[in-house]
Amino acid sequence: MLYQELIRRKRDGAPLRRDEIAALVQGMTDGSLSDAQLGAFAMAVVLNGMALPERVALTEAMRDSGDVLHWDKGPVLDKHSTGGIGDTVSLMLAPVLAACGAVVPMISGRGLGHTGGTLDKLEAIPGYTTAPDLALLRKVVGDVGCAIIGQTGQLAPADKRFYAVRDVTATVESLDLITASILSKKLAAGLDALVLDVKCGNGAFMADLAQADALAQALVAVSNGAGCRTTALITDMNTPLAPAAGNALEVALALDFLTGSAVPARLWEMTCALGAEGLVLAGLAPDAAHARAMVERALHSGRAAECFGQMVAALGGPRDLLERPASYLASAPVTVEVTAPQDGVIAGHDTRAIGMAVIALGGGRRQPSDRIDPRVGFSDIAPEGARVTRGSAIARVHAADDAAARRAAQAFQAACQIGASAPDRPLILRRVGSHG
Fold first, then answer.
1. Catalytic position from the list 121, 161, 186, 352
2. Average of per-residue pLDDT across 405-415
3. Is 139 one of the annotated active-site residues of the chain?
């Protein structure tokens, strides 16, 4: 099969058959499709798009380009978020779902752009390995019920090569290719069901509700088409989801959440909503009300916290992290309060700017090779709707030095909007898909 003929047909707007797409993906995997041809194919997709059968075929072929995991028990369930600020939900949700009877091999990612990454957060835990071999992954999931890890070279290798080419050919933004990239990695974990959190707002990649809805619709249709029961919640990201942003700070917050020491309202609602959605999809609960009650019991009983602690220990982290988090999570040498410049109400945040300020502190990457400082970021972020007075604290900066702390405090102050009132914004904007 001549790759250039397939590229020409897609360039001219013709649909490709399943076997033709499979041939292209095989070429990505074995190297017989050159980078130039792969870039040309990606651009042809950007210009002409793909119909749903093509999207499904591309996703399945990329999924099947490496190992596809199979599990002795189930149901196998996962969650994916498109990324935001203060989004620590994965750290709580994986053990919650496992405590409710699901098998959860959660394949997560690193920070992308201004958003934080689950793997970067977990690497703030000393000894925790985010890249176990498949034998260890199987053992941890079998023994504990969940494991949060990164993509290995054995899972969806075609995606890794395809993304590298897209990154340098201005073809990253294609909805078709974004969908295949996200889902090929997730589905390679052998999922029965998947719940998606598609963020929308000034701190999300999809700032516009119509864009977020288009992505959610695409992901749900393709994942269901590939045989994985899937729904999506479109959720608000116009303000940080939690009162912390920064890797070790978010881990500490997740531990407080799991143990019941501190439970921010928005984070609780998001965890319960996504957990309930997933449990119904997986057939572990008959409806959303029963599922939410299961999630709440897993948290209140301590079973989710116990599961998280077992996962951390099984993947190389400390066995007493839950009991002694301050002994293991590094703290920054400089902390500075950010104060309100006037009286009023927290009316909103430039959430993307807060994410960029974390990167400027060293808590994220400007280049893929950058090392992350897990200690830095913001804590004690005053939530939207909080009443403040001039000089009162609206956040706390954690920094490596005084100069960085001052710059971050100024950036946060500029990103925090104080007015007469706060907007009445729902956390969950829309649900896409159906159980079935």
1. 186
2. 97
3. no
